[in-house]
Structures are given as C-alpha cells and as structure tokens.
Amino acid sequence: MQCVTKSHRFQPNQYERLQKCASALPRLKPRGNAGHPGYTHRYRPRQTPANQACRASNLPVTLPTAIQPLVSSKLLQGSVTLALLAGIDAAWSGDWSRIGVISKSTEQFLQSALTAVGGWHLLMGMCAYIIASQNGRPELPATAKALAVGTLPVLELILEIQAEDVGQ
C-alpha cells in the first residue's frame, strides 16, 4: 500500500491503493488562535494507527537498509579474515618468496601494509568495545570480531543498534 503525497502522479491502476490509503489518512482538526478561535489556514493531522502504518509502508530504502545484508554476510567477513591470514603468512613466513610465489620487495610491501591494517583493526576493536559497552551489548564478542575482521563488524553493530532505535 502506498500513501499519496503532493508530488504523486496518479495512474489508472493505482486507484485501489489510493482508496485504501485515503481511508487511513487522518481527519484534520482546526487549530485556532486567541484572536479567532477555531480559524486558521493550518491544520494539524490527528495521529492514528492507520496513518502511521500508511506512512511506514512508504518509507524509502536508505543506505543502512541497502548495505545491511552485505555487511552482515558471514561469507564476506570470513573471506576478509582468510585473506588477512594469507597475507600475514605471505609477509612474515618467508616461504612464499623462497618458492618464488612473491618477490622479496612484495614481501616487504606486504609487511608494511599489514602493519597499517593491524593498527586499523586495533582501532576498530576499540571502537567496537566502546559502542557495545555504551549500548548494553556484550563487549568481548564485538571486540574479538572487530579485531579479526576490521570495519565490517563495527558497521554491523552500528546498523543493528540503529535498527533497534527505529523499532522502538
């Protein structure tokens, strides 16, 4: 069911939806002032459950709702963790350069890059701990997940908290 807005253009096949939504629209009551009680050009709509349901059905898709499935994907988070572990093995074991998979310069580049990534993961772990503790969630799982995966679990935590706030 869709609500009608001022910018809505009517189409013949939307007449039934319009009737359903029009029945859910609030009745308007006048808002007066001291000089002319009961008279004004502005109206305040009365909030009804049907009106709120009609508005809720017409909510646009926002960025958080669009990226939630991607951020919450266990496959993506597992892939990030596996790639980091492979990079750590390639950078510090010396086996990859010894058998010729990567060169010594690539190994040194990986070491410096993964040092920066490790610092970022420590920062994300601290952020996850703070966010979880301020919102009454268990800190240890949120922190451990952020240390292992990085930014994705922190975004997932923020989006879950926002979804709970909207639901209340």
List the defining traits of the structure above:
8 helices; 168 residues; disordered N terminus; mainly alpha; 2 strands; two-stranded antiparallel sheet; single chain
Estimate the strand proportion.
under 5%
Strand order of the largest sheet: 1-2
Helical content stands at 55-70%
| Main sheet overview | 2 strands, antiparallel
Low-confidence stretches: 1-8, 39-44
State the total count of DSSP E strands.
2
Q: Could you report the average pLDDT, rounded to the nearest whole number?
A: 76
Please identify the structural class as seen in this structure.
mainly alpha
Number of helices: 8
Ends: how far apart? 22 Å
Structural shape: elongated
The value of Rg in angstroms is 27 Å
- Reading the helices and strands in chain order gives HEEHHHHHHH
General description of the model:
Helices cover 65% and strands 4% of the residues. By secondary structure, it is mainly alpha-helical. α6 runs parallel beside α8. It is elongated and about 65 Å long. Mean pLDDT is 76; it is low at 1-8 and 39-44.
